[in-house]
Design brief:
By secondary structure, the protein is mostly helical. It has 14 helices and 13 strands. Helix 10 packs across helix 12, helix 11 packs antiparallel against helix 12 and helix 13 packs antiparallel against helix 14.
């Protein structure tokens, strides 16, 4: 999406990160730098922690594995209208806490039935109505409205209707937003997901700065900086990235669904949350049977391991995610005589001189092949540049299987060279991962680094596996091309000798 300004653009780009499914977690070390909650200071409609609190302190929420807070949430929901459930909260093997079956659950059975009155949406009532009115008056987008709403409700503690829900949320959401820049550079150097994590972090910072400049600074009584600051927004965005759902049967409305967002993800299921008009509640339909005590899963969507790490903070076991992919960065050659013309063609269709394409075990997208054709095409094909760029952008109704046989060998070789350079980076990281410097003087920091490094190793192994498969396919195709050329040359020489 094109920026409208250097700051406001950041505000707009975040909307693209919210997808149609939930949500959250995997085992994580206990948050660092978390100070005990302090008595809030009263403001007009909000409350704040003491100004001296640590920059990394979030004074609400709980430890990631707190079952007690989740059980308190279930009791509150039940007393507030949540029907009897066939699920209960518990400690689980996949994730630190999750929902397990209380009774036998049949395949195709509908579970949860969370009524709309217990769902947080952009229309939810604010404990501080004036704050909500200011944001709506300034046409703040729904997802950003929810992020601010979450902070506002958390800050008033027990005065908020959602205090039990907020108390059950993790103080430190599982996402790459909580990795420092040095950690991203150190552990994800080989993966393209690093760039996306940096972009997302920059977007969050830009969004907060835009809100602060346009709204918060003009209404300090409603949005005191002690409450509405960069760290609390990092927390609220982490919650939304990992838990927000879009409900197709409610015209795509975005929402936070307490209790339902305790469900963990499995790559083996395809069921997701939606609003059921007949029962008038948020439900999901199981696609397999569950026995009593067995953890019940949901799908967060068909996401790669890198995307799951980016938003939810975990990496599935290598080879278990059928939607897994690895991104390959292709770039124009600046030494190309037609570099300017090719760049102009790409920019015309919304692309840049460098672009990331997803690779799967089964192959690569047509758009990447079109991009590669453009990169290697000679000046004599100048009139084809726009056509190639249009197909690469996926913004054309032109024939997608358009081929340039005369460019196949050079295009495949270009992709292969890029692929092998990427494999070399992964291999280097994996070889050196066993000798990473660790600070043994700080046990908490040591545990964090070990955990982050393990996540990075798991991600790199899964992405390198896909790159190896791509390398194999490309080498086969190049071999076939050369074999065909050799066969054609042999036939030609045979005919030439015959006529001689």
């Amino acid at each position: 999406m094109a920026e409208t300004s250097s700051i406001h653009l950041k505000t707009l780009t975040l909307s693209s990160f919210f997808h149609t499914h939930t949500h959250h977690k995997l085992p994580f070390i206990k948050p660092m730098f978390v100070a005990p909650p302090k008595k809030p200071t009263k403001f007009l409609c909000s409350a704040a922690t003491a100004a001296s609190a640590s920059t990394y302190s979030i004074p609400w929420g709980c430890e990631a594995d707190s079952v007690e807070n989740a059980e308190a949430l279930q009791k509150w929901l039940s007393s507030s209208g949540l029907p009897p459930q066939k699920l209960k909260i518990g400690k689980v093997n996949v994730g630190e806490r999750g929902l397990v079956a209380l009774t036998n659950v049949r395949k195709g059975e509908r579970l949860l039935f969370v009524p709309p009155s217990l769902v947080i949406t952009p229309d939810s009532e604010w404990s501080c109505p004036q704050a909500g009115e200011v944001l709506k008056k300034n046409s703040v987008p729904d997802w950003l409205l929810l992020a601010t709403y979450l902070i506002s409700e958390a800050s008033v503690r027990g005065s908020s209707r959602w205090s039990n829900y907020i108390s059950a949320l993790p103080r430190q959401p599982y996402s790459l937003l909580y990795w420092t820049r040095s950690e991203l550079d150190r552990y994800l150097e080989a993966s393209q997901i690093r760039e996306r994590a940096i972009e997302r972090s920059d977007d969050v910072i830009g969004t907060y700065n835009d809100l602060k400049l346009r709204i918060f600074s003009k209404h300090p009584d409603l949005f005191p900086e002690e409450v509405f600051n960069m760290e609390t927004f990092r927390w609220s965005f982490g919650i939304l990235f990992s838990r927000l759902v879009r409900l197709p049967s409610m015209d795509g409305k975005i929402a936070l669904v307490p209790w339902a967002d305790m469900l963990n993800h499995s790559c083996e299921v395809e069921t997701y949350l939606d609003y059921d008009k007949s029962s008038k509640g948020i439900v999901f339909t199981t696609d397999r049977q569950y026995q009593p005590g067995e953890q019940v899963f949901i799908s967060y969507g068909k996401k790669s391991n890198g995307e799951l790490l980016l938003s939810y903070g975990f990496v599935p076991k290598e080879g278990t995610n059928p939607s897994d992919s690895a991104e390959l960065l292709l770039s124009l050659r600046k030494s190309d005589k037609c570099y300017k013309e090719k760049l102009e063609a790409l920019e015309k269709h919304g692309l840049l001189g460098s672009y990331r394409f997803p690779l799967k075990v089964t192959g690569w997208p047509v758009e990447m092949m079109a991009y590669a054709y453009l990169v290697v095409s000679p000046p004599s094909m100048l009139n084809k540049f726009d056509e190639m760029a249009a197909i690469a952008s996926n913004q054309t109704r032109a024939q997608k299987n358009l081929r340039y046989p005369e460019l196949d060998e050079e295009a495949f070789q270009f992709i292969l060279d890029t692929c092998e350079a990427s494999i070399a980076k992964y291999s280097k990281f994996l070889q050196e991962s066993g000798s990473t410097d660790l600070d043994v003087t700080s046990p908490k920091q040591l545990n964090r680094r070990l955990f982050l490094k393990q996540l990075a190793v798991d991600l790199c192994n899964s992405e390198r596996r896909i790159l190896y498969r791509t390398q194999y396919i490309l080498r086969r195709r190049l071999r076939d091309i050369k074999a065909g050329e050799l066969k054609a040359l042999t036939l030609f020489n045979g005919f030439r000798n015959f006529f001689k």
